[in-house]
Structures are given as structure tokens and as C-alpha cells.
Amino acid sequence: MAWLVFGVRIILGGVLLAAGALKVMHADALAAAIAGYRLLPPGAVAPIAVALPPLELIFGFYLVAGLFTRVAGIVTCAMFVVYAIAIASAVVRHIPANCGCFGPGDSATADWPHVAVDAVLALLALFVARLAPGTLSLDGFLSRAASKEHS
After folding, report:
1. Which domain holds residue 38?
2. How many angstroms from the chain centroid is the CA of residue 92?
3. Whole-angstrom Cα distance, residue 24 to residue 22?
4. How confident is the model at residue 112, as a pLDDT?
5. Peptide bond preceding 133: is omega within 30 degrees of 0, i.e. cis?
6. Is the dihedral of CA 90, 54, 145, 4 positive or negative?
7. What is the pTM of this model?
8. Less packed terminus of the chain by CB within 10 Å, N or C?
9. Residues 68, 70, 74, 79, CA torsion sign
10. Dist. CA 108–CA 98, nearest whole Å
11. Based on the structure, what is the number of domains in the chain?
12. pLDDT per residue over 93-134, tens digit each?
């Protein structure tokens, strides 16, 4: 099971690293995509557009490295749940919002398949949080090092 957790960590971390990297220098485009969902007050859009890519990069790194794995899994699960709810709300309200998932080059429109993908990613993140850290993790290495130190 530890290898499965490792594999899921790598997949989730890779998704977050790719999404964050493709958006990090494009806050204006991300802000436009976020505003297109018509869920947030205008004053909240720009700060979220600036903060979201670094958060995705940080938690993507944590998952790939297996560092703070349980917390990273929980936060990642929450992020994907929020993404799924935002996309579902646009679909239900018939708003042709740009997904914005992978930066300005991503022209995909919010739709039910995107909701399903985000829901599956949220469940995978919950799986990682529950069974963290898996094999090949810094959490495991640090735990073993601390155990040897106290022996």
C-alpha cells in the first residue's frame, strides 16, 4: 500500500506543480478566469489569483517530496473540492466560464467532466492524507532519523 500512496502522491503533486507553474506568471489571466465564475466579490479575485499558484506549487512539492504529507493531502483535498464546487456552480448556472486550470493556454470550458476529475483528485488526496506518508517520503526519512537519534 505504501507504494500506491507514493504513486498517488506523485500524480497529485505533478498535477499541482504543472497547474501552479503554468499560472504563476499570469495572475491577470487567472483573475479573469476566477472572475468568470461570478462567485467572489471583485476585491477578492486579484489576491486569490496571486496566492493560488504559489500554494499549488508548495503543496505539489510537499506531495512529491512526501513532506508534511498528511497536511498536504488534506489541503489538496480541500482545494480540489473548492475547484469542483466552483466549476459545478458555473455549469448549473449555465455560465461558460473558462476552467483556468492550467493557465492562460487552457481554453477548456467548465463542464461536468471537469467536476468529476476534480472530485476524483479530491478523493485521491484524501486517500494520501489517510495513509500518509507512503514510501520514498521525507516524512518517513525524518521519522526514521529521529527514531535512531532517540535510540
Report:
1. 2-149
2. 23
3. 6
4. 97
5. yes
6. positive
7. 0.93
8. C
9. positive
10. 6
11. 1
12. 999 998 888 988 888 899 999 999 999 999 999 999 999 999
**Beta carbons of 83 and 118 less than 8 angstroms apart:** yes
Question: Is residue 150 scored above 80 in pLDDT?
Answer: no
Query: What CA–CA distances, in Å, run from 108 to 7, 92, 96, 100, 126?
Result: 27, 17, 10, 8, 26
**Neighbour-count burial for 20-46, b at 16+ CB within 10 Å, e otherwise:** bebbbebbebbbebbbbbebeeeeebe
Q: What is the pLDDT of residues 43-64, one digit of tens each?
A: 999 999 999 999 999 999 999 9
> What DSSP designation does 150 have?
T
Residue whose grid cell is 492550467: 102
CB of 36 closer than 8 Å to CB of 98: yes
DSSP secondary structure string for all residues of 10-67:
HHHHHHHHHHHHHHTT-HHHHHHHHHTT--S-HHHHHHHHHHHHHHHHHHHHHHHHTS
Percentage of the chain with pLDDT > 70? 99
The residue written with cell numbers 497536511 in the block is 71
